[in-house]
Specification:
This protein is mainly alpha-helical. It has one domain (5-132). The protein contains 7 helices and no strands. α1 packs antiparallel against α2 (15-31) and α2 runs antiparallel to α7. The chain is flat, with a radius of gyration of 18 Å.
């Protein structure tokens, strides 16, 4: 087998490989939630750490919808980061030094983040439908 499980599953029509593909797409999509310590929180910090406050309700909704010890651990680890995002001052010298990026870099990273999130969301939805149908 070469390439991704998704293309292999489409070629041989195997539901197991669709399930493997779905798991990969979903886990990567989940990891892009804009909450630190997830990768989505790290990449969106270049835009503003306050974006983490947008991702927190999604993380909590996911925790209540699909209770999981791993999600609970992520929520616990995220709490100090969310407190920091709440009191974030973009003019503080340490924040200026740490989060300094050009507007071009912010646009480039934002476009890549949202593009990847859209692709993973679409693929997660598509493969889920293929498994169901």
């Amino acid at each position: 087998m070469r390439g991704s499980p998704y293309f292999y599953a489409r070629e041989v029509d195997r539901r197991l490989w669709l399930a493997v593909s779905y798991s990969g797409f979903f886990l990567n999509f989940l990891n892009l939630l804009p909450v630190s310590p997830l990768d989505g929180g790290r990449i969106t910090a270049i835009l503003s750490p306050r974006i983490w406050l947008i991702g927190a309700p999604f993380l909590l909704a996911l925790l209540f919808d699909r209770p999981s010890p791993a999600l609970l651990l992520i929520v616990i680890i995220a709490i100090p980061q969310l407190r920091a995002a709440w009191s974030y001052d973009p003019r503080a010298p340490q924040n200026v030094a740490y989060y300094n990026a050009s507007p071009e870099t912010r646009i480039e990273y934002g476009a890549m983040y949202f593009g990847l999130a859209a692709l993973l969301g679409i693929m997660t939805h598509t493969v889920h439908g293929m498994i169901q149908g």
